[in-house]
Amino acid sequence: MQCHDLQQALTAARVGKRPLDEEQQRHLASCDACRAFAALDLRLERALAADADEEPGVGFDTRFFARLGEVKKQGERRRWLGLSLSFAAAAAAALVAFVALNDADHDDWGGDIELAMNLELAADLDVVKHLDDVEAFEIIAKLDDRDLDAVLNEAGRRP
Question: pTM for this one?
Fold first, then answer.
């Protein structure tokens, strides 16, 4: 018999699963380490048995649940703060990336910004008045001969 097996058997005997058999009792009588374990196990059992259940004091549950509510609110505030900071950091990073990527491509924004500021004056220009026609001409200019023939055949304008 090994000490480990006897120690498991002692624990099982303490919780009422089964008593020690003769071989286990002989090992216990001859092994100092197992006797020390059994003595410690017995002291632990007696200490646990002597410990009386105590009832919580008056108002314990009220104080407990009030404190629990406070802790939950703090956790929610921290979570929302963390999410807000994460979102703000992501938005700032996206803005920096957008500006960095687009700044190099639009060095001539000065003219566009000036035009936007004078939009009322630009509305009087003939090009702006006939912008739909200009866009249609740009589309037609991109067509090759076959595409142009197909469009005109569909419209019934080609003999």
Answer: 0.33
